[in-house]
Amino acid sequence: MKYAFPDNFWWGSASSALQTEGAREGETTWDYWFAREPNRFHNGVGPQQTSTFYQHWKMDIQLLKQLNHNSFRTSISWARLIPDGIGEVNPEAVDFYNQVIDELNEQGITPFITLFHFDMPMAMQEIGGWENRDVVDAYARYAQICFELFGDRVLHWFTFNEPIVPVEGGYLYDFHYPNVVDFRRAATVAYHTVLAHAQAVRAYRAGHYAGEIGIVLNLTPSYPRSQNPADVKAAHIADLMFNRSFLDPVLRGEYPADLVALLKSYDQLPACKPEDGFLIAEGKIDLLGVNYYQPRRVKCRDSAVNPQAPFMPEWFFDSYEMPGRKMNPYRGWEIYEPGIYDILVNLRDNYGNPRCFISENGMGVENEQRFIENGQINDRYRIEFISEHLAWLHKGISEGCNCLGYHMWTFIDNWSWCNAYKNRYGFIQLDLETQQRTIKKSGEWFAATALNNSFEKE
């Protein structure tokens, strides 16, 4: 069967400043944490050892061209552009980002630029990070500077990438700095992130720039174990906390009333100011990026909550391991292709069918050297993963969902937060010793799919 996509469909991939650039200038929370606890990072490999985009950007953009990308998302590093978060702009950073943006445009690759992809300047974290409203104001200033510097050539902006992740990692589950476990502080961080987003949107609108502004959310559909009311309620609460806590403010301009009521009943609401509601209402977006990797399967709790334990989302649900589920064993994540369709249908039916695109989808595999044939990684599993997801995406589009593109994570094997290079995600293999880049079979497949705006599948 042939799957053909709409004209002007965005074919591309996504990456981030911290995971690719290297040559760090301003210190981020990642640099600080790695210097103190290298044992928390896979094989002791920290954020200095990236895929060297800072040196090789021109070559890498040529590779994007070779993969027939018509669009590419990366981020600007706040810490590179304004090393202390609030002071002088670093002219070398301006030159670098100007060169990258100009080269992308020259090669016919539309730049999609994210303002914040997990890389808080350490100077901002030292005064409380997203817990401090002064940092919200500093971020809004940083965003405005980016719009002024690059807004004439960047027409697709994103305020945040996966803003729920710093909340989960830094303030609930101890997998990002500052390694806090405190729900109320987590809720404050999430709330202030929404305020920061809305301030950036307000600044963008005020500047009357030619492009559009959005946000990238990692949406994990919450599926109940059964239709038993207790399981359905558990899935609803998981959805409220992990999806709708950001989805509703950015698409509807307000929080779900039942989420507010739930947090209020447990005395976990962040401090709000009367004018915040007006600001959040102004933060409605033009374009939603959807990162989809895995579903969330939940059931009602089987055991009572320990009243001495910290208040956590898991007070309301347990995770459910569905028998027979398909797994990516290297990442420990379920592979469930229809989830991408369910997300689009939910957006169509419950959120007014916003303009959106798949901004990340990907499969990390360990020790891919096993699959080298004639000097090239034959990653058939990745081609199968992408084509299955694209088939469900195609179904959503054919049923009227307003999805405009598909970006894969990622174009080249890159450094991944605490996992370093354990799992490889790229269309292009990176040799860490030589920095040599070699296109994998999946890269060739994607280049052909993008060129033809379609693919064939049995």
From TrEMBL:
Active-site residues (renumbered): 360 (nucleophile)
Key words, A-Z: Glycosidase, Hydrolase
PROSITE patterns: GLYCOSYL_HYDROL_F1_1
A GO BP annotation: carbohydrate catabolic process
Record-level Gene Ontology MF annotations: beta-glucosidase activity
UniProt entry tagged with the keyword Kinase: no
Superkingdom of origin: Bacteria
GO CC annotation, single: cytosol
InterPro entries in UniProt: GH, Glyco_hydro_1, Glyco_hydro_1_AS
Family named by the database record: Belongs to the glycosyl hydrolase 1 family.
Record's protein name: Glycoside hydrolase family 1 protein
Origin species: Enterobacter wuhouensis
